[in-house]
Amino acid sequence: MCLICDRIEMIKQGTNPYFVKELETGYVVIGDNQHFKGYTLFLCKEHKTELFQLEYNQK
Ligand SMILES: [Zn+2]
Fold this sequence. Notes:
Layout: H1 3-13, E1 19-22, E2 26-30, E3 40-44
Antiparallel strand pairs: 1-2, 2-3
Zinc ion binds next to α1.
């Protein structure tokens, strides 16, 4: 399991301390390091390494 899938699994289990909000197609999390205050990331629910690997309605 990769780091991103690991984090998504932690969100599902309620153990990811960086989780902010669930959206329709993914999750909002804050970055592990806050070099830039408020830095956030969007993790797609279905982890892919390239955008073109997603179905059109997931983009
Ligand atoms: Zn993954």
